[in-house]
Amino acid sequence: MNFAQEHLPLITAICNPGLRDRHWSSLAEVVGFEIRRDEVTSLKRLLEYDIATHIIKLVEISDSASREWSIEKALDKMMTDWKGLAFELGPWKETGGCLRLCRCKVFAANSTARKARSYMTQTASVLLP
Fold first, then answer.
1. Fewer Cβ atoms within 10 A, N terminus or C terminus of the chain?
2. Helices 21-31 and 55-82 sit at what angle, rounded to 10 degrees?
3. Taking the model in full, what pTM does it have?
């Protein structure tokens, strides 16, 4: 087994793009010294501090950061997808207790047709007491 393969779990854990400041703080608590993502920190230096002895806990923190990052990306996508949507509530017929929820989205000019268009999608009525 070569050097890179041997330390791949550590490399993967430390180079995780989902690591935030709180994760770096947790990593520091585990290893007993501050770890930074910068040009000075190297795998060689980390190995000199015997960081590999904490690999299980480091991978746990990194995996948690990955899951959080996935949720953040999904929420960002939802925010983008929902941008421009307007939710409108209105009375449903004359029942007084039911409301109709409508979603309206207006699209910008289509790049090929150069026309603005809109559509409305109706969702289920909601019964209110």
1. C
2. 170
3. 0.63
